[in-house]
Prior knowledge:
By secondary structure, the chain is mainly alpha-helical. Helix content is 49%, strand content 6%. The protein folds into two domains: 3-86, Glutaredoxin; 97-232, Glutathione S-transferase Yfyf (Class Pi), Chain A, domain 2, CATH 1.20.1050.
Amino acid sequence: MSSEKKPKVYTAHSWFPNPSRLRLMMAEKGILDQYEEVIMDMEVVGEQKGWRHKKLNPWAEAPVLELPDGTYLSETAAIAQYLDDTHPGRKILGETVLEQALDRQWDNRIWIQLLYRFVTTFHVQHLGLGPDLELTYNPSWGETCRKEGLQTAAMLDTHLSDGRKWVLGGEEPTFCDTTLCTAIMWGKFGPMHTDLTHRFEFLDAYWSRWKERDSFKRAYNDGGGMEELAYLKTK
């Protein structure tokens, strides 16, 4: 398939949380090469906030999947569901109805109570991404969100302490694991200073398992914006 005919994913570098979640899911599914990534400048320019991108997604967020028939899908979990159902191979969001429900349950918990808490901490304590992205400066609220995220991380560490490799207890990660992996990565990023692998034994082992996977190495081949993953950088 030529690159001109590939469906497009409008996304960003892997140190942005939702692009990271989707890229890791696509790598696990083995379909990254079947899509053309359009990397937007979300750091300084705030390209996703411009009118061109808002024509694709009025909520001005990434990622967005553009299909050959002109349909646009946004919201990371919705895109992941579409990709999982339309491509053969292992079902990343769960093989059975019960597994799918459990994956959604845990993904919601991890996204809302951990990753989104950390994302909020970053944005209300750090103004470096410019006025288009950093609309509110509220350090005390950021600390509240950080503490709430750490409480959830402690619960997840306990959940993993029974010897399971992945959140649902199977032999392979599911979509909720991509969200937890992203949360751990985000805690290590720049001014966050909230390294969960330093604080929690079983999350540390969990992160190490991810780092050994080929999907992780492919998803973070831009280095993830951190020194720890710089060795993966190929572009």
